[in-house]
Specification:
The protein has 175 residues and is an alpha/beta fold. It is 31% helix and 16% strand.
Length: 175
């Protein structure tokens, strides 16, 4: 069983999920793969200390602060490969971006492989169950494409701009 609570953010309503001790999910309303890693019911519970901590973290973030990911107990559910990608996402500095290709090269090196598919990395990034806190919005396409954000391109742009990233260098793919 999981617990859930809601958070009103500047980019829209969000749902947080917890196993009682850890944050296991954070999704924007209508986000692709919403609650996809949570198997079983989510019961509303606004009083969990982990939710209070996560809401304080989000308040600080949306006020323009740079709270550390390590402040929160996170337990995203996913394969070993996805866990590796999500850990790398947490290493992308606030206000900076990386590309799927750069992340693929890092994983290939970590795994002693000659190459790694940026598309495979993109799949893991897109399935990140803890949006914003695990900063998947900081990943862009090699040519500056703002592709691949499950919460939507407008939300990705707002998050990057909040962090002081000059988004004029990027473009939204024609869909």
């Amino acid at each position: 069983m999981y617990n859930s609570t809601n958070y009103a953010s500047p980019i829209g309503p969000m749902t947080l999920a917890s196993d009682g001790e850890h944050i296991v999910g954070l999704w924007l309303e209508g986000q692709k793969y919403f609650a996809g890693t949570v198997k079983g019911a989510m019961l509303p519970n606004d009083s969990l200390p982990v939710f209070e901590a996560a809401k304080r973290w989000l308040d600080e973030y949306f006020a323009g602060g740079n709270p550390a990911v390590s402040q929160l107990p996170l337990a995203p559910v996913g394969s070993e490969f996805r866990q590796t990608v999500w850990k790398l996402l947490c290493e992308i500095p606030y206000g900076k971006v990386s590309t799927y290709g750069e992340l693929a090269k890092k994983i290939a090196k970590m795994q002693n492989k000659p190459t790694m598919s940026p598309q495979a990395v993109g799949g893991a990034v897109g399935h990140n169950p803890i949006s914003i806190i695990i900063p998947c919005h900081r990943v862009v396409g090699t040519g500056g494409s703002l592709t691949g954000y499950a919460g939507g391109i407008p939300a990705k742009i707002k998050l990057l701009e909040l962090e002081g990233v000059d988004t004029a260098q990027f473009y939204a793919p024609k869909g």
